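Private note to self, pasted from the team thread so I don't lose it. Backbone tokens:
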């Protein structure tokens, strides 16, 4: 047998062994849905229950700008120091409502975020990182921008939360996004927060975030930054990160997240002059 024939035979033998090992591993450790953690019957990351709900979440539109979350042009209340890419102020995978919603789509989005934040098995993080990577590259390509002078960073968890869960989900998200997109990852911030943002109102969130995030010592800040977060509610955390980065010399700061709140339609205010009103 020639050398070429031996190599071909070895290649087919390797593929057969690899397929057999993969089959045995799949039998012993069946894959599970990244959201609900149920066993999968097909080659997919989402089960037959979660997949249509996730597709519905991706198609949901903002009541103000009538665009999906990835293309929404609405800014949250406290996002004043961030920058846009094209007409987009933020890229998100979906919208969400506050806890206690009866909508199954809202509950699914919150389950996904909870899985990212609390589950040590990284399947949910990899899934969200891949989806976010696709949106980041698509957004930059459509706007005609290069990612060469951009870096990826995140608002870190408090030390208390890292001790509780054993990892920082923001750091893991950024590492996978950097791997999928080729954009350089840089850990730039520290978090000294004592209070959690979860149970604070809008003004308390801003005050707590502004006093919590600082640039790490001996960290060189240059170029533009993509800030990755899990949920953007009021935008206080993202804005505090953007302010810290720009004060240290950063250029543009563009936020991306897994989910963001829908902006509510506001009623039209009365004209300032109010000609129909007469003071007595």
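Design output:
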């Amino acid at each position: 047998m020639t050398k070429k024939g031996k190599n071909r035979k070895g290649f087919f033998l390797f593929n057969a062994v690899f397929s057999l090992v993969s089959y045995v591993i799949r039998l012993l450790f069946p894959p599970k849905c990244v959201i609900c953690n149920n066993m999968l019957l097909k080659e997919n990351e989402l089960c037959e229950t979660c997949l249509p709900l996730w597709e519905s979440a991706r198609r949901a539109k903002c009541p103000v700008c009538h665009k999906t979350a990835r293309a929404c042009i609405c800014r949250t209340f406290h996002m004043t120091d961030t920058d846009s890419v094209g007409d987009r102020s933020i890229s998100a995978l979906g919208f969400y409502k506050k806890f206690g919603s009866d909508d199954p789509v809202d509950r699914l989005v919150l389950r996904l975020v909870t899985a990212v934040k609390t589950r040590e098995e990284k399947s949910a993080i990899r899934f969200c990182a891949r989806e976010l990577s696709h949106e980041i590259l698509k957004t930059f390509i459509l706007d005609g921008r290069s990612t060469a002078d951009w870096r990826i960073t995140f608002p870190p968890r408090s030390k208390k939360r890292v001790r509780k869960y054993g990892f920082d989900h923001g750091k893991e998200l950024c590492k996978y996004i950097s791997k999928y997109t080729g954009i350089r990852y840089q850990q730039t911030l520290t978090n000294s927060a004592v209070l959690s943002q979860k149970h604070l109102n809008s003004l308390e969130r801003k005050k707590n975030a502004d006093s919590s995030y600082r640039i790490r010592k001996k960290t060189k800040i240059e170029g533009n930054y993509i800030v990755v977060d899990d949920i953007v509610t009021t935008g206080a955390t993202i804005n505090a990160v953007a302010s810290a980065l720009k004060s240290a010399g950063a250029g543009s700061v563009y936020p991306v997240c897994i989910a963001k709140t829908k902006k509510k339609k506001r009623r039209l205010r009365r004209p300032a002059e109010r000609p129909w009103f007469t003071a007595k």
